[in-house]
Design a protein that fits this description.
alpha/beta, GMP Synthetase, Chain A, domain 3, Rossmann fold, Helicase, Ruva Protein, domain 3, 4 domains, 19 helices, 10 strands, binds adenosine-5'-diphosphate, binds magnesium ion
Amino acid sequence: MIQDLNSQQPLVSDIKTTWYSVLKKLNKEYGNEIYNSWLKNLKVKMLENETLVFSVPSKFIRDWITAHYVDKIIFYIEEENSNIKRVKIIVDAMLVADQGSVNNDIFIEKNRKSKAVSYTQQSDDWPLDERFTFEKFVVGHPNELAYASAKRMAQPEKFDFNPLFIYGGVGLGKTHLMHSIAWEIKNHNENAKVLYLSAERFMFQFIKSLRQKDTMSFKQKFRSVDVLIIDDIQFMMGKSSTQEEFFHTFNSLLDLNKKVIISSDRAPSDLDSFDDRIKSRLSWGLVADILPANFELRHEILKKKAHELSLKYENKINIAEDVVVFLAKTIANNVRELEGALNKVVTFANLMNRAIDVELAQTVLKDLLRSSNRRITIDEIQSKVANYFNIKVEDIMSAKRIRSFARPRQIAMYLSKKLTSRSLPEIGRKFGGRDHTTVIHAVKKVEQLKTESNKFDEDINVLTQIVTSS
Ligand code: ADP
Ligand code: MG
């Protein structure tokens, strides 16, 4: 049975309401940028049995959404409406160029000291972060090279390297440094044309210009800037024409002696989906890495943030040194988590009207500590599950459908979903290149079997113990 959403059935409004709530959640989760670039393209078409069908204007958008956002979409849809079990995204060329031109790049037009920063062609509330400046960046051994080269790049005089490529793990300060460069250049010269955008945004703009057959203005726009800053280039993958265009833009800016700054979560040579030419060109200038913060740096950052917080609270709070040390020791993952932890502790103390001591910090951070204790990998799960059922890891990965392999495979998929933060498509890929729907099916199957059989439920509990405990 197919229910067309354009017909007058009562279901229509239900589904639109569902989708509206889901969109709101997605927007909240991913922010305006991703929402506008990708998610907004999804148009509800119809409900086909238990499958909600969407259309998008291009294959690329479909693939991108499928690779990055589809499990969250399914998750939220199920949360809103349990009658919908699956989604399907189809490409509908009729949707091309439906919403006029959206232009959300940041052209910083004014000195940041004037509160009213204005943006040309700005239609979204998406400014550079005012807190991300060099003054607020704490320098230590793990990030000193990146900091020094970012500083250098922000100087008005001629530069001695170009491009600057900054790489490092998440939450280590890449975006902070890039925004700092943009602010500082603007401070030196109000008229400098600085363009900062994420690689996702760059791709989206390019694809859009292709769709609208207007690549000329795209080229013009990007090639007329003085400084181009592209964040998270690792997301510009699997699409050779975009990479090609990026490469041209990039080359022509370098030829014109314009500054180019790029960040990534990995070194240029590890950008696997990039053409060798591009990889080598990216490392022509200066490549600076940011290493995970060591204890000293974490300690310094916390001291600075604690100081800022106490200013904010007009010296009404006092974060004792032993609390700072405790946090710096316990939260080793990244600076973002470190900041989050400190804020959480302060908020809680304020709310409960309690002094900020180590005991309070311990209580507040229990959750955070548990999750940052150890990262479980899919490989680990596969080998432990194989071991438990006395089969080989290859059998878990294989296409063999006999029950004695298929069941452990489903269990391993289920545990991967429950115990890691990998997405459904990623899990599918790790299991011999299977589709994300196979993973969803496995998770559902295991959940069902758990309720049907005590023995099975017991198996899952024991396996969860095995996987999480070592
Ligand atoms: P990335 O882009 O590398 O994922 P961000 O630049 O977004 O990381 O940094 C995450 C958070 O940590 C931001 O709030 C940033 O201000 C803060 N941060 C990271 N490194 C430092 C540092 N060295 N000094 C002060 N704050 C930092
Ligand atoms: Mg970042």
